[in-house]
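Quick start: what a row looks like.
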Amino acid sequence: MFSAAWIPRVPDAHPLRATVRDAKNLPGTYRFMAPDGEIVYVGKSKQIRTRLLSYFRARPEEKGHRIVHEAGSLAWDYEPSEFAALLRELELIKRFRPRLNVQHKRDGRYSFLKLTGGAAARLAVVNAVSDDSSTYYGPFRGGRRVVDAVRELNDVLGLRDCALTTPMRFSDQPDLFAFERTPGCHRAELKLCLGPCAAMTTQAEYGERVRMLRAFLDGDADEPLAWLNQRMLAAAERWDFEYAASIRERIRRMERLRDEFARLREALDTLSFLYRVPGAQGNDDRVYIIRRGTVRAVVSAPASGAERRRLARLAEEHFAPPEPKGALVTRHQVDEILLIARWFRSNPDEMAATLAPERVDALPLSA
């Protein structure tokens, strides 16, 4: 909520209100600009005119009141459907980063696993995806639980969790001065880290552990769980039941992470289809080619058999190449995946307008 103490009341005859008289009640996006031209807010609506007029009725404590107060001009563009407006809004927000927009800015409810590159890769939990050479997995809900599971993975596989600026020295690297290096933290001494900072492992050995990690995250192997199970059985055989119970809890944390990865991969795979969206004015119907939660192409809905065959070829081009394994996302995909998942979750009846890419021949032709 915004305090009304420092925001003057918007006059009933605000000059921007008169411009809305030309707006139509069609789907689209709109932009409020500051007097210096800065885009301060971007929004979308399936009824542009009604939505814009609501800003001039906002109470002083409401966000809409502040948006109008800071705006010097207003513009809007029509889109063929609410879904098209939703995608366009996301595009504009990502391009201009309006300071009064909070939608599509992740609020900490989601977390991601970040696997860095380099000879001594590091796995960590982060709240956002950056433009770098790292590999990202996610998004996941709940940070603490994921952090605990990642700690278990690092401990079992012996991967480092130190700062990226920590110098690395593998045992198979030439060392002209034969310096004796000591681990930078206690994890190596407790055998929870291979110790790449202290020449306690070779680059190949560390790389093999990273390979095991990727296989686990991709759902191809369960070596970390198998190792923990062996330790648990060994502890039980020597009657160290307390230690066996603690290992069992570690196994459960990692199993929950593995199962969540499986659910995420399945969810992404279910967001793969052709989606036909009718235009709001009875024309400009469109077909969206969606794969793993991202729009790969948009075309006008076919009006003839020849156009439908062209769409079939386009769909094959986008669905034939194999996708990266695992729950892998890149920065530009995250917001769109969340947006499309939210759209179909909020509008479950829209799933009836989707069909598998190999069933293009069942797509009705536009009039």
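That is the whole record. Residues 342 and 348 are 10 Å apart (CA to CA). Residues 271-362 form one domain.
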